[in-house]
Design brief:
With about 375 residues, the protein is of the alpha/beta class. The chain has two domains: about 200 residues, Aspartate Aminotransferase, domain 2; about 160 residues, Aspartate Aminotransferase, domain 1 (Alpha-Beta Complex), CATH 3.90.1150. The protein is about 45% helix and about 15% strand. It is built from 13 helices and 14 strands. Strands 1-9-8-7-6-2-3 form a seven-stranded mixed sheet, sandwiched between helices. Strand 7, helix 6 and strand 8 form a beta-alpha-beta unit. Bound molecules: pyridoxal-5'-phosphate (PLP). Pyridoxal-5'-phosphate binds next to helix 2 and helix 3. Homotetramer formed by a catalytic dimer and a non-catalytic dimer serving as a binding platform that orients tRNASec for catalysis. Each tetramer binds the CCA ends of two tRNAs which point to the active sites of the catalytic dimer. Pathway: Aminoacyl-tRNA biosynthesis; selenocysteinyl-tRNA(Sec) biosynthesis; selenocysteinyl-tRNA(Sec) from L-seryl-tRNA(Sec) (archaeal/eukaryal route): step 2/2. Converts O-phosphoseryl-tRNA(Sec) to selenocysteinyl-tRNA(Sec) required for selenoprotein biosynthesis.
């Protein structure tokens, strides 16, 4: 049934898949561990940078050394540096590389990797290719990239999250591929028994939705992406900010926070906490210059997928299940929070206290939001959480 959905969503030639009772990161680890037996000499994984901890940890946990390929800035977009990937393969030697680990769905201004070109490179050097398609099933563009990659080059496996694509609780993923025997090999690597809950959840969801129900959700998501994008553009214009131009990202959008960032170092993170306390739980603010060390590797500009992205910004996404009223509510709350922060700027130049201000309207809105949740009316997640 899940294979049917994967084909319907755009990867028409996928030959098999299975549901794993682990989330995306651990499922990627399982793929890498399976490849280890085929490539005993290999110790590196080539990885175009994506600032999501579990992606990085999936390689470390499997015992490999990630070789981080920095993205290139093209306009506002961060894109795969294909020349750097090929140069690294030549430098390290193809037999020492376990695989290329690419990513489709990601937060803007990073855009999906150039999966097709990477697949061609992998075929040329006979290197396996594992694609992290975490929340890509819901986007025909992400699925098309995988289909094309497999047609013109090499893709060994692609991994997607159950909760992000099928609105079920966290804890499952789907590993799919184009070779029955390789997908079976991965499934045999799983040691021991597991909970049946993820399979049961997805079975119940797909039985109740049917193919037409799922298709309808895909269509609505796409329409809401256009709507969210136009509403954010309007808001950006009013506030002298910019909706970053990221046409290759079909799910996530980024709104510049230049004036807030210039106001004070902490204003951007304060906006994030304001939104969170107003039940906008998935919006991600990305300040400038955050460094983070993960397993000994230092990521400069962490969260922005780049060492020095030119501006601070806020992410919003149109995820499956989204409704027009979710977008309207989000824009209203974001507008309010941004204006509050701007007002603060004129009152106190140094540290904004905007996060602490709660108006009666906010309380009424929160009560309304809670009421909706309890009545099961807001079944959808407005935004994808990190
Ligand atoms: C691109 C990407 N990959 C992997 C993950 C991790 O997913 P999981 O929590 O299912 O391991 C996320 C989570 O947001 C993600 O955005």
């Amino acid at each position: 049934m899940v294979l049917d959905i994967i084909r319907l969503a755009g990867v028409r030639t996928a030959s098999s898949c299975f549901v794993v009772p682990m989330a995306t990161g651990m499922s990627l680890t399982l793929c890498f561990l399976t490849l280890r037996h085929k490539r005993p000499k290999a110790k590196y994984i080539i990885w175009p940078r994506i600032d999501q901890k579990s992606c990085f940890k999936s390689m470390i946990t499997a015992g490999f050394e990630p070789v981080v390929i920095e993205n290139v800035l093209e306009g506002d977009e961060l894109r795969t540096d294909l020349d750097a990937v090929e140069a690294k393969i030549t430098e390290l030697g193809a037999e020492n590389i376990l695989c290329v680990h690419s990513t489709t769905s990601c937060f803007a201004p990073r855009v999906p990797d150039r999966v097709e070109e990477l697949a061609v490179i992998c075929k040329k050097y006979e290197i396996p290719h594992v694609v992290n398609n975490a929340y890509g099933v819901q986007s025909s563009k992400c699925m098309h990239l995988i289909q094309q990659g497999a047609r013109v080059g090499r893709i060994d496996a692609f991994v997607q999250s159950l909760d992000k694509n099928f609105m079920v609780p966290v804890g499952g993923a789907v590993i799919a591929g184009f070779s029955d025997s390789f997908v079976q090999e991965i499934s045999k690597m799983y040691p021991g028994r597991a909970s049946a809950s993820p399979s049961l959840d997805v079975l119940i969801t797909l039985l109740s939705l049917g193919a037409s129900g799922y298709n309808k959700l895909l269509k609505e998501r796409k329409e809401m992406f256009v709507y969210l994008s136009s509403e954010l553009k309007k808001l950006a214009k009013e506030l002298n900010e910019r909706l970053l131009e990221t046409p290759h990202n079909p799910i996530s959008l980024a709104l510049s926070l230049t004036s807030l960032s210039e106001q004070s170092g902490s204003a951007v993170t304060q906006l994030g906490s304001m939104l969170f306390t107003r039940q906008v739980s998935g919006a991600r603010v990305v300040p400038l210059g955050t460094s983070q060390t993960i397993n000994g590797y230092v990521f400069k500009g962490f969260m922005s997928h780049s060492n020095n992205y030119p501006c601070a910004y806020l992410n919003a996404a149109s995820a499956i299940g989204i409704k027009k009223q979710d977008v309207d509510m989000f824009i209203k709350r974001l507008d309010k929070c941004l204006r509050l922060c701007k007002k603060e700027k004129h009152l106190a130049k140094d540290e904004p206290r905007c996060a602490q201000q709660t108006t009666e309207d906010d309380v009424a809105e929160l009560a309304q939001g809670l009421g909706d949740v309890l009545q099961g009316e807001t079944a959808s997640e407005l935004l994808l959480s990190g």
